[in-house]
Amino acid sequence: MTRPDRAPGRVMAQLAMVMNLDKCIGCHTCSVTCKQVWTNRGGVEYAWFNNVETRPGQGYPRRYQDQETWRGGWTRTRGGRLKPRSGGRLRRLLTLFANPVMPNIRDYYEPWTYDYDNLTSAPLGDDFPVARPTSLLTGEPLSIQWSANWDDNLGGGAEVCDQDPVVERMRQKAEESVRFAFEQAYMFYLPRICEHCLNPSCVASCPSGSLYKRSEDGIVLVDQDRCRGWRMCVTACPYKKIYFNHKTGKAEKCHFCYPRVEVGLPTVCSETCVGRLRYLGLVLYDADRVGEAAAVENEHDLYEAQLDLLLDPDDPRVQDAARRDGIPEDWLAAARRSPVYALAKRHRVALPLHPEFRTLPMVWYIPPLSPVVDAVAESGHDGEDVDNLFGAVDALRIPVAYLAELFSAGDPEPVRAVLRRLSAMRSYMRRVNLGDPADETIAQAAGMTGAEVTELYRLLAIAKYHDRYVVPTAHETDGPVPEAACGLDFDGGPGAYGGPFGEASGRPVPVSVETFHALKDRQTADAPADTAGPGARVNLLNWDGRGRPAGLFPPPHTQEQP
Fold this sequence. Notes:
Elements: E1 11-20, H1 29-38, E2 51-55, H2 67-70, E3 74-76, E4 82-84, H3 89-94, H4 105-108, E5 112-114, H5 117-121, E6 133-135, H6 158-161, H7 165-173, E7 188-192, H8 201-205, E8 211-213, E9 220-222, H9 232-236, E10 242-245, E11 250-253, H10 258-261, H11 268-271, E12 278-286, H12 290-294, H13 302-309, E13 310-311, H14 316-324, H15 329-336, H16 339-346, E14 351-352, E15 363-366, H17 370-378, H18 386-392, H19 400-407, H20 412-433, H21 440-445, H22 450-461, H23 465-468, H24 512-524
Parallel strand pairs: 1-15
Antiparallel strand pairs: 1-12, 2-7, 3-4, 5-6, 8-9, 10-11, 12-13, 14-15
């Protein structure tokens, strides 16, 4: 809700994401699909626009959260103003041609391939030939010592977690407050993309002005024509989600799959997520108060200040202001249905990542709750009883203080409040699913009503495709965008998948927008694959198991009649 005593200022729209960490299984499908679609070219072999980290752990690049070293994000001056932690304009000018404050290739990893040719060209001998790793940068033999997922599944081990900057900060506040013992080890997965912040420090630090935040949807992009490769953005980004392409000399980053979202489709990482843990939606915010919210004095107030920026799309005053500022009606309708607004503002179960960086990140996270249930169940008590769950919130194997360092600038109260709401939802819905009368006192104990708990449950547990992804089409489009057509594209004509001068001529096979919409239709259609329409084609990677597509199975055996 907006403040009743303050009318909204300039209303702008932002596409945002929520990830439910309770559902992430660390399969890295999102990373692989993003890699194949957006970074499968030379110069960015080491770049992962989407990566999944094991927590506790060092992250990727190594120890990116240590801003005392990497100088990312914003810092608040004594006068209450913000300035990039990497320094002002004069400092950036003096270090324009030599900027040492950024990760080097060892903090990412030196990309490699294998000498597969040796497997077939090695001379005969007593030993089996091997494919030795070779550097993709130098072509020389390489000793592999680090990579993006090097510490995968090693959460809880002192050898890895002692290098976690979050753990270091916790130990500075209370020595020995975090101990790593095998029997107490627990880990969770943290998927990360560019945060597409409301107050991006990378945009403010770019000397050439190539980084910009789109006014229509808030996506932060790099203008490749204007980029001069100064790499100040790499230093300024506290999440280290901007990569330098050493072959093109340009900066590259996650662009929120803008070719897809412009036609109303979710990002690739969301579409292919096995756990269905990602939610996409539009939020409205007061652009005139972004600087004020990012510059609040106490870091513990940053979360509430960021929440206060989000405007209620059902408020008539907000709707009038949004129309005044040029936001179309279909975007207002999408904002009213936004799962991001519902999870972050209405139900208050999603938290921003490292709000203390003061960039106002717009990728939100629902903290994991599973270890609370496990801890209670192992003690012999009912692991779904709300009183037991509330009492066990502080018994998390991953301490609440650790989650607070990630999601609420070290303040444990917002994290406890989220975990209590999630616990109440589990206990309340368990009674409903078992046929017992709904107990309103369970919802009231978490500051909710039974209707709100049910709404949250439907969103987190059984939400359909169109409920998880509410992505409006671009302003200048009206419905699905078709690909450009050619008058010679009739079946069998010279323009059908080729040109009049052979397969290398003419336009390429239509795959972009058409395939995006085909994938969406396949995932939301009720008809089996083989009855989806005349001439329907089946992609085995997305086949849902229904029906018998032609050619997939041998024809049924029939006995010959005598």
